[in-house]
Amino acid sequence: MINIGLLGLGTVATGVVEVLEKNQKNIEKKVGEAIKIKKILVRDINKKRNLPYNLPLTTKPEEILEDSDIDIIVELIGGEEPALSYIKTALTNGKHVVTANKEIISKHGKILFGLAEKAGKNLLFEASVGGGIPIIRPLKECLAANEIYEIMGIVNGTTNYILTEMTERKKEFGQVLKDAQRLGYAESDPSADIDGFDAARKLAILASIGFNTRINPAEIYTEGIRNITSKDILYAKELGYVIKLLAVSRKRNGRIEASVSPVFMPIKHPLAGVNDVYNAIMVTGYPVGRVMFFGRGAGKDPTSSAVVGDIIEIARNKNNCKNVLCTCFVEKPVINIGETESRFYLRLQVEDKPGVLAKIAGIFSNYNVSIHSVVQKSAEKATAELVLITHMVKEKNMKLALDEILSYSQTLEVSNVIRVEGDV
To answer: What's the rounded mean pLDDT across residues 168-180?
Structure first.
């Protein structure tokens, strides 16, 4: 018998209880012995719960963390504290740990892996990225023979749903966000999702594993989707693109490029067709080439699938801590965003006068910004809207050029600046 202590009984934890109960016989055959939830930590024992099971609940964490009969602690509280302290205590007390907590793994993974190694126990976190999509173990094991060059993906279902709705329903951002909150796809405070922080934490985990170096979310340039308008969506479509919030990390001459931001993605790109709340992660390396992982990236069912998968992995190998080893064994600095290169889409409002476009083109030229295409989209009340696509240019050069353009008396507004992924 393998005993589990479950920390939390929210949506995902409820899913874990259901999977372990409904699939009990199959899981026991796969593991070789029964898995039992011995106790669950909750805030309120008397809260009404729609579960047909007699659950052993407690409000005292020590009843789980200090119980010598419990083999695996499953942390599903979320947030940084007290979850971090509970995981530390569990590992120190010689227990295996499974978590879906991307914030803790991305920020404190180094410390926790050290504690796990010292205790000779496993710390697994497949559900921290991509919900039910297998990606952590494939990176650590199935693709271990590869030198990884690039990891990119759509890793936040909320923003992908919003951008899909804006594209297909021609709605504005604010309206779709309200719909997402009503449907449960977005929190009442959606900032972690729509400002890109959730994606940055997930990218930090993926890039750390893929490139064998410790990357913190604070090192990742992060930009959300608040400024995306229906007009940008329309122009993207006219130019042969869709807009996605893309998490990108690449190896560049011994350093790592890492960013989360909206991008213009060519319609023919494999990630361009990933819509609604789905996630997809693309990994490129040698010798495997390019592989892609696709599926539901959040929610009770896919996330609980990944959590129970980790539980089974530990149960099968409870006396063999092969998964505990941290794969971050080299140091590779993260490149400052100003030193990275990209193509850009720009939407400008300028005075509709002769010589304005020539002046703007001259400013760009002064900062080595080469323009691939420019279109004047409208001219109303002596105002012209210009849509430009550049060739590859350093971020810092683009910023300097835009600063000067903004100071130009006949520039009324730089309405949006969005990176362009792929060839133009």
So the answer is: 92
Give this prediction's pTM: 0.94
* Domain spanning 136-296, CATH class: alpha beta
Residue range 154-173: average pLDDT? Answer: 95
Domain chopping of the chain, boundaries: 2-131+301-316, 136-296, 339-420
Place of tokens 């995306």: 228
Asked whether the beta carbons of 397 and 364 are under 8 A apart, the reply is no
CA 302/CA 75 separation, integer angstroms: 16
CATH of segment(s) 2-131+301-316: 3.40.50.720
Q: How far is CA 334 from the centre of its chain?
A: 17
Quick: pLDDT tens for 371-406. 999 998 876 778 999 999 999 999 999 999 999 999
Within this chain, domains 136-296 and 339-420 share the same CATH topology = no
Highest mean pLDDT among 166-175, 243-252, 375-384: 243-252
Fold of 339-420: Alpha-Beta Plaits (3.30.70)
Residues assigned a catalytic role: 202
**H helices of 212-291, where?**
230-238
